[in-house]
Amino acid sequence: MDISALIPAFGGFAWTIFFFVVALSVIVAIHEYGHYIVGRWSGIQADVFSIGFGPVLWSRMDKHGTRWQIAALPFGGYVKFAGDANAASGKDEAAMADVQSDPVALRRTMHGAPLWARAATVAAGPVFNFALSIMVFAIVGYSNGVVRDPLTVGELRPLPTQTQDLQSGDVVLEVNGAALPSLTDPTYGTFVDTLPLTENLTYTVERDGERLVVDGPHLRPPFVQGVSPQSAAVAADIERGDVITAVDGTPIFTFTEIKNAVEGSDGRSLDLTVWRNGAELQKVLTPKRVDEPQPDGGFATQWRIGIASGSAFEPATQSPGIGAAITGGVAQTWAIINGSISGLGHMITGAISTCNLSGPIGIAQVSGTMASQGAQSFIWFIAVLSTAVGLLNLFPIPALDGGHLVFYAYEAVTGKAPSDRALQILMGVGLTLVLSLMVFALGNDLFCP
């Protein structure tokens, strides 16, 4: 399904909010279902499972005594277990007093259950978020396949070039007389980067068992493979599939020339000539400073316009296998976790701007942009956001899942839980920290360039 077809019907603001609510609701539902189902398996009674807060729009009671409901404010959710006073699992003193003399009823409360059951129930929310991410990344990776090695021509791209002698199924052996490295070879990227910045290259290919020399466009033409949310390219209405043919009136034939022009712009506006479906369009955009993660774990600040490169053709792919797809899903999820922790650390130390932290407005804008790029992009974004939500909830802040796990660790070590008074104070501090973080992120949405 092409989600972008729905955009005109909703209008810019409305459909952005719609897809933001959809993304958030899916992530919250998965997170809270993790709490619910593991709690139920652990013998803890769930009284309420809610998507959203505030006035209840719909509800029903299931056979296990849990009321499932959808509330009017769809910006979160919660599971209220027996013995809880609120959505943050604060203790209901009156309810707990009523069951003190009944061991069976006490065991079914969140606060009367064994330590292992409480810890497993709390940890399940983030774990289910990570599981959702791994599953989505694995399914997308399996369905898309991995690029066949050696590089093989799949579908030819529409490019504004007169020379295109490559054919689908050609196996690329050499480019301009030099052997093409394996795609897994660390030198592959360097090889492509050092190719002549010309419109056409000479390819040696294997076709139907024969070795042929043919002409074709540059291996990495100025083709827009993808557009980053909240980027200069989005603001200038650059779309996936566009080909940039000139920068400031100077013809270009490779993606490297775009990259050089942007990095050398020092932030000044660039006039681009864009080829789209046979028509030439004129676009003006202003590069943005972007903090980019590096392989060594650090960050580098560069001028960027937010487009990703693509090859002169859609490479042929092959199935990675279920095991490899799952492994790839785990690796992708871990990369997001590692990058998020690294980014947060660099923001705390001042190495990169705190404007890298987005709030609800920024996340909503990204939701809309990813939805406009198609169903797969939107589902991928949900998986990325699910990882971020799972990680955030593991932070050792009272009122978050990580804070509860710290309390349980204290109980496991000392043999007794923190006092109710201490918990109330710590939960208040934690809630203040969370709200402060939300206000700070909202400020970034409103005031960061």
What proportion strand? 15-25%
Write down the overall geometry. Answer: elongated
Low-confidence regions: 1-11
Number of strands: 18
Question: Biggest β-sheet, characterized?
Answer: 4 strands, antiparallel
Number of helices: 13
| Strand arrangement in the largest pleated sheet | 6-5-7-8
What is the average per-residue confidence, as pLDDT, rounded to a whole number? 91
List the helices and strands and how they pair.
Layout: H1 7-10, H2 12-41, E1 46-61, E2 67-81, H3 93-99, H4 103-107, H5 115-144, E3 146-147, E4 153-156, E5 171-175, E6 178-179, H6 188-193, E7 200-207, E8 210-217, E9 224-227, H7 232-235, E10 243-247, E11 250-251, H8 255-263, E12 270-276, E13 279-285, E14 288-293, E15 299-304, E16 307-309, E17 313-315, E18 317-318, H9 322-349, H10 360-372, H11 375-393, H12 401-414, H13 420-447
